[in-house]
C-alpha cells in the first residue's frame, strides 16, 4: 500500500479554540470546526509524516480507537478538507512552497 | 445555530478574544469629512512591536484579525506586517481606501492569503465621493484598486458609509459594487471623534429618511419581518451580553492602547506596558464591560426592544454611561418598528401608548428634538454581488 501525505495549506487561517481547531479557507471562506481528533491530525499534517504513521503514533495513542478505523476516518477527513483546498493530499511528501502554490489557485468568490 | 454562532459562543464561554481590530496607523491620504480620527502620528508601534503583539494575540486565541487605520498602506512596512500576521495563521481582513493598490499590491495581498479587503465607497459619482474624501480623483483611484484586487482573485467588500451628503447615491454604489464583482453593504455608522468632538454627528442620516431604508427589500430582505414589532423579552435576552465588545472582541490603536472596540474608546490598557493577555484578563475596565448583562441596564432592561435592539455600548459610553441607552439605536428601533423605546418614553419624547408604525411615525416627527432627529441604522444585511 502506498503512503499518503497530508499538509496544511498556507491559504488558511487556523486557531485552537479549547480542544477544537477552527479553520477557514482564504479561497472560499468556508469555515470548519475540527474535533479534538481532527485537530490532532491537522497539527500533525506537516507534509512529511505519512498519514498512517500519524494515525498510529498520534491518534491511536491518545484516543481509544483501533488503527484500521482511525485510518479510514483520517482518510475521509483528509479527502473532505482537500476538496476545499485547506489540506493537501499526495502520495509524495509535500514541501511547503508547493502547498502555497497549490492553495493560491482558484477564484475565492 | 450556525457554525459561526457556535464558535462565538464557545469563545465567550472560554473567555477568548476571537476577533481583534488593530489600527496600524492613524495617518491617511484622505481627509474624510466624517472621520473620527486625528491623523498625526503620535508614536505608532514599530513593526517589531506589532509583530510581538501578533504573537500575543495568537497565544490568546485570536482568529479574526482586522488591519485598518487611517490608511494602513501609508505604512512602508505594511506588507511585512501582513506577512507576519499570516505566518501566525490569522484570518486577515484589510480595511483600506485602495488608493495605493495597483496590480502588484493586489497580487501580493492575494499571495499572502488575505481573506477579504473592505473598501469604503461613498458615491458612484466622483464629485460626491471626492467631496467626502477631500482627495481629488480618489473615486477613480479606489475603483482602479478594486479592479486590481478582483483581478488578483481577492474578495472585496464595498462599504457604503451613508450620510446626508450621499444618501441619494446608495443604489448607484450598489450597482458599481456589483459591476466590480464586489459584495456591498451599507455602513451608516458615524461616531463621535475619539477626542470627544461630536460635531461630525451632524452628518448622520436624518431620521425621517430611515423608514424608507428599513422598507427597502434590497437592504433588509423581508421588510415586513424586519420591521415587525419586537417579540416578548425572555430570560435569554435578559441574560445576554449587550455586545461582543470586550467579551469576544477588542481593539488596539496604533499606539498600543487597548479598547473594548474601535467604537468604544474606553482606555483599558496598553500593550507597550503590559502583555495583551494580561490586559484581556485583568483590566478593570474590560472586567466591568464583561460583567454587564442586558437585564442589568437601568433603562433598556424595561424596553420592549431589549431583545432586538442594536444598542451599541460604545455609543452609550460616549453619551456618558456604558450601561445607558444609545439614543441613536433607540431611534433606529423606533423608526424600524414604530414602537418607541423605554428611553424615548422616559425622556418624554413619546407620550402615547405604542400604536401602529404609521401612527407612531406621524406622531414622532413633530415632537422630536432637533438633535435627536439624526439617527443611524445598523448594517442590516450583507448582499453578495
Q: Which descriptors apply to this entry?
A:
heterodimer; A: 109 residues; alpha+beta; Arc Repressor Mutant, subunit A; three-stranded antiparallel sheet; B: alpha/beta; eight-stranded mixed sheet; 8 strands
Describe this structure in words.
The complex is a heterodimer of chains A (109) and B (385). Chain A has 109 residues and is of the alpha+beta class. Chain A has a single domain, classed as Arc Repressor Mutant, subunit A, CATH 1.10.10. Chain A is 42% helix and 27% strand. A three-stranded antiparallel beta sheet of chain A has the order 5-1-6, sandwiched between helices. Chain A has a three-stranded antiparallel beta sheet with strand order 2-3-4. In chain A, strand 3 and strand 4 form a beta hairpin. The longest helix of chain A has 17 residues. The radius of gyration of chain A is 13 Å and the shape is globular. The termini of chain A are far apart. By secondary structure, chain B is α/β, with parallel strands linked by helices. Chain B is 37% helix and 10% strand. Chain B has 17 helices and eight strands. An eight-stranded mixed beta sheet of chain B has the order 6-5-4-3-2-1-7-8, covered by helices on one side. In chain B, helix 4 links the parallel strand 3 and strand 4. The longest helix of chain B is centred in the first third of the chain and has 14 residues. Chain B is globular and about 55 Å long. Chains A and B meet through strand 2 and strand 3 of A and helix 1 of B.
User: How many strands in all of chain A?
Assistant: 6
* Fraction of residues in helix of chain B: 25-40%
Structural class of chain A: alpha+beta
Instruction: Summarize the biggest pleated sheet of chain B.
Output: 8 strands, mixed
Mean pLDDT of chain A: 86
Main pleated-sheet profile of chain A: 3 strands, antiparallel
Strand share of the residues of chain A? 25-35%
User: Would you give the CATH topology of chain A?
Assistant: Arc Repressor Mutant, subunit A
Report Rg of chain B: 21 Å
Quickly give the CATH architecture of chain A: Orthogonal Bundle
Output the helix-strand order of chain A.
Answer: EEEEHEHHEH
User: How much helicity do the residues of chain A have?
Assistant: 40-55%
